[in-house]
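Fold this sequence, please.
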Amino acid sequence: MATGRGVRGVLRAQAHRRAAFGVGLGLYIAPNNSATLGAAPADRQGVAGGLVNLLRVLGTGVGVAAASAMLSWRLEATPQAHGRTADASEPALLAAVGAALIMLAAFAALGAVVAVIRNDPETGRRKAAAPAPPRPRPDRASCRVF
């Protein structure tokens, strides 16, 4: 894997990569959530926040399940692996991981296309859903307390 670097060198390299990943997530998630919640009407921001969290968890679950299924499917097609990651040769494992990453990149591209389509080309702002019609206020005469 990392010849000549030792365990500490490998761990240090992994720590740097994970730190860069964490910084990237931090730079993306907070502004994205802020923009999403800012696009919601004030009286529906609680619902919007709940939907943001729901869809984030749903996307994570679907992504992990789809990547696992792709990896398993590709390894099942490898004669010597018999569907087991530990028994797969390095080229077969790399090919299976590559196929899973391509599928995840396709998911990301689909999400980007949907986000671009959802933008209003004239203003560059997100298209808002049609506002709900105002609720009729109850007549005070019909609101009697007995």
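The two ends are 80 Å apart (CA to CA). The chain has two domains: 8-39, 43-120.
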